Amino acid sequence: VELVESGGGLVQAGGSLRLSCAASGRTLSSYAMGWFRQAPRKEREFVAAISWSGNHTYYADSVRRRFTISRDNDKNTMYLQMNSLNPEDTAIYYCAASHGNNWYPLLLSEYDYWGQGTQVTVSS
């Protein structure tokens, strides 16, 4: 499975961005999916996850009620709608796919495939 993120960019604090994660090589409908991010000099951290059906989601406390994860299995694509962005959200955002048993995996080690990342920069 090849994953490609898009939609990153520069935005002012309070603004919004929508990230996309497109898959090729295999259908995503059997994979749980997730978003992670890595800020400079920090470890990669969990942001949000969604079950294969899209019926179950989970968010990190830092983004809950601001970010929304979704997926369209017909388009083989996952999304992350990010609202009320602040400078602390600045990071490279990665999408990932998991073939494990968890509906919404939270750990990096649970994911089997990763995208190359897309930069999100929020200015104050």
Write the topology of this structure.
Layout: E1 2-6, E2 9-12, E3 17-24, E4 32-38, E5 45-50, E6 57-59, E7 67-72, E8 77-82, E9 91-98, E10 113-114, E11 118-123
Parallel strand pairs: 2-11
Antiparallel strand pairs: 1-3, 3-8, 4-5, 4-9, 5-6, 7-8, 9-10, 9-11
Could you explain the architecture of this structure?
This protein has 124 residues and is an all-beta fold. 0% of the residues lie in helices and 49% in strands. The protein has strands spanning 2-6, 9-12, 17-24, 32-38, 45-50, 57-59, 67-72, 77-82, 91-98, 113-114, 118-123. Strands 2, 4, 5, 6, 9, 10 and 11 form a seven-stranded mixed beta sheet that branches. A hairpin with a 6-residue loop joins strand 4 and strand 5. 35% of the residues are buried. The model has no long low-confidence stretch (mean pLDDT 95).
Labels describing this entry:
124 residues, mainly beta, 7-stranded mixed sheet, 4-stranded antiparallel sheet, 11 strands, 0% helix, globular
Tertiary shape: globular
Order of helices and strands: EEEEEEEEEEE
Strand content: over 45%
Please give the radius of gyration in angstroms. 13 Å
Helix content: under 10%
What's this model, at a glance?
The chain is mainly beta. Helix content is 0%, strand content 49%. It is globular, with a radius of gyration of 13 Å.
